[in-house]
Amino acid sequence: MTSYMIHGGIAGFLLVLALNLLNGNGYGISLMWSCIATVAFAYVSRWFMRSVFSEMHLSIWEQQQAAAQAQTEAAAQAQAEVAEGAAPEA
Hints:
This protein is an all-alpha fold and 90 residues long.
């Protein structure tokens, strides 16, 4: 998770620094806003990646549960077919 925060912070720093310098702001103001953007972008990237990984984990878990349920239903159906074949006919 740290690498995502670092990359998000670097991207935020460079983006805000470039925008401030292109708008003609001074170096001091540009650096101050870039440092603030670094922290903001780092936390936003952490939040975003945490939500992405949570949803991926939930999706995998749901797939495993569906496969287990399908296997259980198939075993129950096979057992019911065996039980029907073993029942005596009158």
